[in-house]
Amino acid sequence: MSFTAHDLTETSRELRSEIGRLLSKPTEPDVLLGNHPLSVFASQKQSIAIWHGTRIENHLADWIGKFSAWSAKPRERISIQSTTYEIDNLAWSASLGLVVAVEAKRVWSNQDKSSKGEVKQKKDLYTKAANSQLIAAHVGQPGAAFRHFVFDAYGNTKKGRNGLSVIAGDKIEGVFGHTFAKYVRWEQKVLANALFVQLEQQQSVDLAGEERLTQDVLADLPMGSVTRSLREVLKFIDEHASP
Predict the structure, then answer these.
(1) Which of 76, 78, 74 is nearest to 59 (CA)?
(2) Domain range spanning residue 86?
(3) Is the pLDDT of residue 105 over 70?
C-alpha cells in the first residue's frame, strides 16, 4: 500500500469492489425491513464487519511502515514463557528507541466485555519488564522503551481504562504522524460512499468530501520522519490510559 495518487485510486477501487461484492450476495428479506434497500446491508452487516476488521489488521503494518522512522510487522508471533502469542501489529522506531504492540479494532466501544478483557490481559502480559524487553529484542531493539495500545480505527474513544491506552483514528498522528491520520479518514469516507451507492442512498454520497481528503493525504507527500521526541510519544500514549 502506498500514498501515491495512483495507489490511492487503486485502493479506492478495491474498497468499492469489495463492498459491492458483499452487498450483492442474495439474501432473504430482513425480518424488520422486508425488501427495503437497507435490508441487504442488515443481512450482510456481519460479513462487512469481519472483512473490514481483518483488512485493518492486515494493512496497519503497511501504513505504519510508510514512515521512514518506523518499521512494522503484522500478526507477529512471539514465545513468552513457552506460550506463543500473536501480536496484531508490532512496530518499532530505531531512531526513537521505541517498540509498540498495537491491537487494532474497528470501533473499540463495539467490542464485548470478553474481548476487551482479553486485550487488557495481553497488555498486562506484554508490559511486564522482562516480557517487554523480550519483545523489543525480538525486533532487534534491545533496551528500547516499550508501549502497548489499542488503535480504535473508526471510533472516537477518548481514552482507555484500567491502565489500557486506547487511541482513536483521528488522534493516531500523535504516534505515527499526520498523513496516517488523514489516510484513516480518507478510507472511512470511501467506504461510506461505497455503501451509500450500493444501498441506493445517492443523496448521502459525499464525493466532494472524499476528494478533499484525497488531496489532504497527497499534500503530505513525501512523508518525512516523525518529529516528536521519544518523551513526547510516550507521554501521548500514556495520556490515553486512565488508572
Answers:
(1) 74
(2) 69-175+229-243
(3) yes
